[in-house]
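Tip: read the tokens left to right.
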């Protein structure tokens, strides 16, 4: 384990009795309250100094309600350092009022609009691109959540939005379960050449076989992501509680720790703290 307190740049907090998440109807393990007390129990044994909340795909029309709930749930709790909320950026200029309202929240630090289940080309439609571009006016970065087959689209989105800062969630969700390294490896390297993009080392075990994955299954993918972006442009993410389908919180930290066993203390602090602090203005 790291010998210093860490920042987790990707944590989900929610209460389905407060905000509706229809996609959880078929996910009984997730479809219950996961708040700060539950996170504390799950992460016991790991010194977590701060977390960044990332949106959980609330039902349409409840995105701002979700961010407000998180603000209220964590009121007075210094552990929560930032909120990455969902906003309908596909509305383009019409998303302005929602952006204004979100940016006014004390811990608003980024925006995510899920791309992973959208049809091909959705993220390159003119209104969505305009919405992503507008984030730079608020100094809010965009979390790219895609599957590996959408990396080419993500590369083009980044190219069209040079003034927006981006972070790639879950190393681009490579097809680890199928042992498929290409074209993910090549495209990830290409994406890393854009200096306005960083990468979250998160969500990897769930892209392998959740019940049967081994260290050797995931390590090459983690190592390639770090090698592509460099320690100064990667950040640790627990992806709790989604990650629990495949790995406990301490075991995920131990896995990343093992992959980076040859890193310097400075490099490890970049991965586990400094990149997230700088990127999300924590």
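Filled-in amino acids:
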């Amino acid at each position: 384990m790291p010998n210093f307190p860490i920042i987790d740049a990707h944590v989900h907090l929610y209460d389905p009795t407060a905000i509706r998440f229809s996609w959880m109807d078929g996910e009984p393990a997730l479809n219950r309250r996961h708040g700060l007390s539950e996170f504390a129990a799950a992460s016991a044994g790991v010194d977590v100094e701060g977390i960044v909340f990332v949106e959980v795909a609330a039902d349409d029309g409840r995105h701002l309600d979700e961010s407000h709930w998180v603000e209220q749930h964590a009121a007075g709790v210094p552990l929560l350092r930032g909120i990455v909320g969902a906003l309908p950026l596909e509305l383009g200029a019409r998303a302005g009022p929602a952006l204004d309202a979100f940016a006014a929240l004390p811990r608003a630090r980024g925006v995510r609009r899920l791309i992973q289940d959208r049809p091909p080309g959705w993220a390159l439609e003119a209104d969505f691109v305009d919405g992503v571009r507008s984030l730079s006016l608020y100094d809010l970065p965009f979390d790219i959540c895609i599957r590996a087959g959408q990396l080419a689209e993500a590369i083009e989105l980044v190219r069209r939005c040079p003034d927006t800062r981006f972070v790639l969630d879950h190393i681009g969700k490579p097809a680890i379960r199928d042992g498929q390294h290409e074209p993910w490896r090549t495209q990830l390297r290409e994406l890393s050449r854009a200096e306005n993009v960083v990468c979250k080392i998160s969500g990897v075990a769930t892209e392998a076989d959740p019940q049967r994955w081994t260290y050797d299954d995931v390590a090459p993918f983690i190592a390639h992501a770090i090698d592509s972006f460099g320690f100064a442009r990667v950040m640790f993410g627990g992806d709790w509680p989604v990650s629990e389908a495949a790995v406990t919180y301490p075991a995920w930290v131990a896995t990343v720790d093992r992959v980076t066993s040859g890193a310097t203390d400075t490099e490890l602090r970049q991965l586990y703290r400094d990149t997230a602090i700088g990127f999300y203005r924590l």
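The first strand starts at residue 6 and ends at 11. The CA atoms of residues 70 and 76 lie 12 Å apart.
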